[in-house]
Each structure stands twice: as C-alpha cells, then as structure tokens.
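Dear colleague,

Following up on yesterday's call, I've attached the two folding results inline so they're easy to grep. Please treat them as preliminary; we haven't cross-checked anything against experimental data yet. The first protein's sequence and structure tokens come first.
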Amino acid sequence: MVCQITFSSPEYDEAVALRYEVLRKPLGLEYTTEQLAAEWNQIHIAAFDASGKMVGYLNLTPVSDTEIKMRQVAVAPEMQGKGVGAAMVAYSEKLARELNYKEITLHARINAVPFYLKLQYDIVGDEFEEVTIPHFKMRKATNS
C-alpha cells in the first residue's frame, strides 16, 4: 500500500528512521533538526507491506508552480527490487499530475540512475557530487 503520511506523525518518525538507515547511515551522515523542520510543508509518501510495516518513503518538494522535486527516496533493503520504489514513483507521478505540476525532477545517486531510466526519466546535465557521492539530475514530464 502506498499513501501520503503527515509530517510530525508517528509514521513520519518511522520514515525518518528508514531514510537514515538506507540513505544517511551508510555515508556516516545524520539529519539535522533544521533539515527535518524544513519538511513541514512538503508531501510525504510511504509504502507499507501487508503487515503494516513501512518499507519505503519518498518526499515531493514543490520547486515552482510547474516543477516538483522527488527527494529522499528510500526502500528497505529487504524490499529493494520488488516493485516498492516503482509503486511509490507511480503514486507520486499521479499526485503531481493531479496537483498540476508539469514535471518532476530529482537528483539520482549514480547507482539509482538505471532505475529511473527504466521509469522513463531523462538525465539532465553532467554528473555532480551531493552528500559526498556522484549524482545526476533527472526529469520527467508528468504527462508522459
């Protein structure tokens, strides 16, 4: 099941823990209070398994009237490769269309680029470093 969750809820706290384990801990990084506080007005999407355990998360952050940025995509290691990420991306694309955004952008870690290419995202520009590792900016029109 994929659905929206509320900032500062128990589900949001669970999402922060999942994000830390998948995205930050391997890099030796922490979330700051300021980073998390800045998410109060963003869209939080989570995936749950049949038992109700959170197995995935992604964030949508409005950039402009036409662009929304997908951030902090994390899938529990034991669920990677099982369609959880693709289901969350599909949900976020549908929601972005409903909210009248024209494109979704994201910064993909180099190892995630093939995943997004398979979902018809395009690479925009050259490789760059973010949170100490290589990334590519990617985009997709919401009408595709």
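Below is the second protein, in the same order (sequence, then structure):
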Amino acid sequence: MLKEQEIVKVESPEKKDDEKVRKMLLILSKATLDNVYAGFILANGARMEGIEAEIFFTFFGLEAINKKKMEKLHVATVGNPAMHIPTMVGGLPGMEALATKMMKSEMEKLDIPGVSEFLEMLSASGVKLWACKLAMEMFHLDKEDLYEDIDGVLTVGDFYERAEGKGTQLLFI
C-alpha cells in the first residue's frame, strides 16, 4: 500500500491555453465492475480538475445505469489477463462471485461509493450521463429502466457532435 510520502507528484510542463484538456468524453461499453469504476473515477477526476466530463453508456455498458442491474455488477474472471489466473480456473463456479466480493471489500475499505451513489455524485458535479439509443433499442430498454438522473438518450452521431472544439479528448473504456 502506498504511503502518502511515497506518492510522487509529477509536474507537468506548462501548456498553452489551446493545448489544455477542457472536455473528456468517455465511452463505456462494458459493465464489469473494473470498467465501470475506471470510467467513473476518470470522469470524477476530470471534474475535480475543472474539466467537463461526459459518459456515453453503450452496449453492455448500459448495465451500469440499468436500475435492475447497476448494483449487481461483477468482476470478469474469464479472459481478464489482469486476474493472473488461468482461464479455466476463472471459469470455475464461484470464482466470479469470489473475485467480485474481494474487489468490493477492498473498495469499501477505501470508502469508494456504490454505483448508484457514485452516479449521484457524478451527476451533482456536472458530469453528463448519456444512454446509447441503438443499444437501448437492441436490449429493449426504455428510459424508465435507467438511472433517473441520466441526461438523455443519444445516437452515436449526437454524442460525437458533443466532441467539437479544441481541448476535447475521447476515451473508450
């Protein structure tokens, strides 16, 4: 575990105003616990730095804002090289549940909020939350199925239009 004195702050070279990141657009396509929290933490970090942030939930990423599924996300144990376990072992009954329980336990120790609470924090800080229209149609979802504070349902084209302007970064998670 890193102690405070071990954390090194790297000074960034001064950037011209037109080179600074002003807006982060995150595309979340998977609702594994690690992917969802990576997206949420990046969006939250952007807002803490005064950077606009938006998350576009598409395909299985919609589960992160699906009211029935958002608090039941899992860690993927199969096909996840970061697990450092063979695929066959990761596929054994109970491995995914065990890995998920362990990760949630570590997150709780760090006081990381649950999905719905984190979404509330993101929304309150000004992060825009968008659902993908095509994915919603494909999975037969209505806006009522989703977290109530999403900002709307967009097509991919509508989302890309939001990327206009200098200083906008697009990140696919």
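For the second protein, one point worth flagging: The longest strand covers residues 23-28.

Best wishes,
A.L.
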